[in-house]
Request: fold
Amino acid sequence: MQNLTEASNPLSLHLDKMTPLELVQLMNSEDAKAVLAVQEALPTIAECIKAITDKLKNGGRLFYFGAGTSGRLGVLDAAECPPTFGTSPQQVQAIIAGGSGALVEAVENAEDDREAAYIELSKRSINQGDFAIGITASGSTPFVLGGLQKLREVGIQTGAIFCNPGAKAATETDFPILLAVGPEVLRGSTRLKAGTATKLALNMISTGVMVSLGHCAGNMMIDVKASNAKLVKRQIEMAASLAKVSFAEAQQALKEAHGSLRKALVNLQSGQRG
Reply:
């Protein structure tokens, strides 16, 4: 395995001597490599989306699991699905090594427990109808590798997101998503390029799956939960645009549909109100 996530970046050997402008210019140029790394992985990401969609169409769930920054990114993506797509919190879930407390404070040695991920997944009754994605920048985190290996043993389909070519994670999953971003500007700090590339890939996976499941019309989030004034206004604008009615008509239709954009659209398009 090429352990590039722990390697020293030759372009940042004098990071401590750089001006703030030099530092941000270097980081910006290095961050661009995250986008290119994701581009190389697009075919695998797309196949992964298809596999997850098939599971969720049949009542399955998607689980993310990881440690540290990787785990937090999984939690973030899972948490965004209900408000964005109107899904149940159970449909996309995330597990972070060390539990919820690790979201805000590092839990020492949690990532070294090979059994913990599968134990937590088992508590949520994971089964062959579900899909799981292990997230590990290094591709060798015991928490993730142990989970992937056990999931394979029990016949549960998995994907893995990692940043080191030749990493062990590649051989323990059905969909190995390699994001080869190279060494970090700050040596070993995978919250940087590796984290950025991982977030981009997760954005694609959750968005691709939810679009495939019918949670948008055109490019509009028709199942968004309007939990604040901005989203209420967006809902009205989407209803007006999709049904080709005035803002006022769309607003009234949403009121009569108790805030359900999908129901309001059906009523507007069929001429039924109330």
User: Anything to note?
Assistant: The CA atoms of residues 64 and 214 lie 22 Å apart.
